Amino acid sequence: MTVPLFLVAALPPGETFTLDGPEGHHAATVQRLRVGERLLLADGRGGTATAEVTAAGRGTLDLRITSREYTEAPDPRLVVIQGIAKGERGELAVQAMTEAGVDEIVPWAAARSVVQWRGERGDRARERWVTTAREAAKQARRPWLPVVAEAVSTREAAARATLVLHEEAKDRLTAVDLPPAGEIALVVGPEGGIAPEELATFEAEGARPVRLGDAVLRTSTAGVAALAVLSARLGRW
Questions:
Q1: Top-tier CATH class for 5-70
Q2: CATH superfamily ID and name for 77-233
Q3: What HEC string does the chain produce?
């Protein structure tokens, strides 16, 4: 059985720890972990600790730390500049990309984004992405939580972009040169695709258009497909 992972603000300095709050409730009440069972604690910044349950209470678990590890942050970092999508498609994209190993997700207010994040509505939408990434990282047992950045404009996205997924690109993602360090920032358009003037802006800033293949993928699946290619090429997978 896969050992479940629970996120904590900081790993305990000593050999004992009480897991409480929302994570403790989930571990003790929802997953019903009992004395003798093991779990992982993670701080979301590379640190993990294996622990054994020594006592179970109502919404809390007493733990004994048995081992600790630290995982270095991946290099180069994989960043996806994701066009904001309507409904659940954006959250589906965030979930899948987190499971596939994305290091940062940057919401992009594209010209063809049906939904625009403004004011409190935008704050709530971003928070849903943050929560989705957090839960997906736990499910995937990732030692590093992906960052969900603030939404950016096309000009701000172009200043950071490395590659742009586009169905009319001549070069395939499987064949372009990749930097050995730093970050690879990949742009994924919204449901309506990337507008010609946006593509021109990205290219003017040095980003390279690339394609996955002949099929045109949805905004909710294009990013995770591209991450799979990049992860394999970089030796992550």
A1: mainly beta
A2: SPOUT methyltransferase, trefoil knot domain (3.40.1280.10)
A3: CCCCEEECCCCCCCCEEEECHHHHHHHHHHCCCCCCCEEEEECCECEEEEEEEEEECCCCEEEEEEEEEECCCCCCEEEEEEECCCCCHHHHHHHHHHHHCCCEEEEECCCCCCCCCCHHHHHHHHHHHHHHHHHHHHHCCCCECCEECCCECHHHHHCCCCEEECCCCCCECCCCCCCCCCEEEEEECCCCCCCHHHHHHHHHCCCEEEECCCCCCCHHHHHHHHHHHHHHHCCCC
